Amino acid sequence: MYELLRRLFFLPRAATELARAIDALHFVVIGTTLLGSLAIAAAAIWLITRYRSDVVRPTPHQSARASREWLLALAVVSAFLAAWVVGYKQFLRFHEPAPNAFTVYVTAKQWMWKFTYPDGRSTTDILTVPEDQPLELVMTSRDVIHSFYLPGFRAKQDVLPGRYVTLSLGAARAGNYRISCAEYCGISHYAMSGELRVLPAREFQAWLEAGSPDQNSSLVELGRTASARHGCFACHTDDGQTHVGPTWSGLFGSEVLLADGTRVLADAAYLTRSMMDPQAEIVAGFQPVMPTYLGSLPQPEAAAIVEYIRSLRRAEREPNPTLPTVQVAPPDAGATRSSAP
Hints:
- By secondary structure, the protein is of the alpha+beta class.
- Helices cover 33% and strands 18% of the residues.
- The protein has 7 helices and 12 strands.
- It has helices at residues 2-8, 17-50, 66-93, 201-209, 219-229, 268-276, 299-311, and strands at 102-109, 112-116, 122-124, 126-130, 135-141, 146-150, 155-159, 165-169, 175-181, 193-199, 255-257, 263-265.
């Protein structure tokens, strides 16, 4: 039945179980709406035929029991709320990364998609991932608003310049799936397309091993180097000690208490936001002195730093008694310290 309905609505093959669940919800909503419309149309035709008359008479006053009206209203509202609850839960699943997710960093720009992998390599317009492993995309734009659209996954996410958003996709079946931009982004918007290739485990491993040695530098090592080059260790440590800013050891995946009393999960999106817009979420107990790296830190390096912080979530390093030094400038002379991530 599912395949029949999918073909009837011209839907592409579902790549994940979540995509099939979304289809099922749509089929129920569309089917309920269609049956309701047909019932109303049939009732209207019957009434027109049954009570048709050439004599014009005043329509007699009609009344119904209040209990029946309330029952009908309750049924309609209940059906709407049920569909809303199911749809909202499906929406949350697109933004809740799985613990073992395969993370890829996506940069949109006119008119192409660039993908950066955990091993340091980058590809353009072709995203290659393993089968049967959840996928997490951390996305940003270098110019205008784009929209990352995967019809086979029933997933669409706006990608904004200067912002980092995540999209979590379930484990996909092997195959090739179309990637499109669903937001008009310029004269060549129609050509901004790509392909998601989901490979079986052995083929994906062969693809990894086929990469050139120059590309296969670990993203963690690249992140460590980029952190040192951009002066991150002047304010942060990676061994658990607190300095000008929070330590990176054990940070990824933890709950961070902010100055306003709220808590936020230290995932890839939060860490990248904290580099690009550090004043938006101040960590409790630290001064808001971290400068923004928006425009000065390339997206691949930001992704590498996040991967380095991710690698420290279970790090067991001996504390370094000699903390990095930093000179604190007066508030009106520009901030040189760090309070996030």
